[in-house]
Amino acid sequence: MQASIDIEALNQQIQVDSAFLEQINEATSKIIVGQNYMLQRLLLGLLAKGHVLLEGLPGLAKTLSIKTLANSIDADFNRIQFTPDLLPADIVGTMIYNPSKNDFTVRKGPIFANFILADEINRAPAKVQSALLESMQEKQVTIGKETYKLQEPFLVLATQNPIEQEGTYPLPEAQVDRFMLKVKIGYPNKTEEKEIIRRSINGQTEQKVEKVVDPSVILKARELVTKIYMDEKIENYILDIVFATRKPEEYGLKDLSPLINYGGSPRASINLAKAAKAQAFLNRRGFVIPDDVRNVCADILRHRLGLTYEAEAENITQEDIITKIINTIEVP
Q1: Are residues 81 and 23 in the same domain?
Q2: What's the rounded mean pLDDT across residues 223-239?
Q3: Are residues 34 and 129 in the same domain?
Q4: In this structure, is the dihedral angle defined by the CA atoms of residues 165, 171, 176 and 178, taken in order, positive or negative?
Q5: Is the residue at 43 inside a domain?
Q6: pLDDT tens digit string along 162-220?
Q7: What stretches of the chain show up as alpha helix (H) in DSSP?
Q8: DSSP 3-state assignment of 200?
Q9: What CATH number does the domain containing 238 carry?
């Protein structure tokens, strides 16, 4: 009885405190046409404190969407264009010698902002990509002997091109795993593309985004997301999905065993739970339902599944495996 009363109160609070979502959607829709799925996933990462990796062909508004969302929030935003000659110091900063004081002073890099756009992240070598690891996981940066805390909200939003190979470096598994979501971006439909053409011709895509939300509102919403109720049956459902990627034969999925090289880590379970709660918030609900888990499952797991050569030879993708697991695991 107490739980139902708490959930009802939480529902009412979410209805009030989620009003900023409409403001963000209205501000971004003036610049971005279509790509609602991508924008929802960016908001999901923002609410669940998770970094987002966008993968799609050039020209699908990945960079524009990230910039537009970041600019609609009254917070610091920096863009880092990853290139093969980029150095770790170009991201985190470095120690600069000051002759007048005969001492070294810290010059902070572009990582010191609320929103970081890591554009074409797979164009830089592993040494540079690893410069992001500490900031993404611990929300801090070490320069010399000093460690600096990054200001909240802190979010890394990265893009990568899946087809271009020349001058690119695959992201190390350790870094990919630190992204909560890996979102695949598709083409707009005909109606949307017609509107894109019209806006581009009229110069509407160049207009400035209005700042409609204060960072304190985001932080308050994040606290509310953590309070969203998740039943133990939902927790077990999440565990079954993740464990089915590790030991599929135990879940009646013996045919998947030769296709999976390695399954989701405990970080997959944690992020699936966090993302499901954030999805419930986006749906203005104070409790998680199985559909919330199913909705975010592919974006949480696709970059955490390793495929065998056999799977690649048969053109079986991570999405195929995730779909089969979701369709097999009993829904609570």
Answers
A1: yes
A2: 93
A3: yes
A4: negative
A5: yes
A6: 765 555 667 777 778 889 999 888 888 888 888 888 877 876 666 677 788 888 899 99
A7: 2-17, 19-29, 36-47, 62-71, 89-92, 126-129, 133-138, 173-176, 190-202, 215-227, 232-246, 266-282, 290-301, 309-313, 318-328
A8: helix
A9: 1.10.8.80
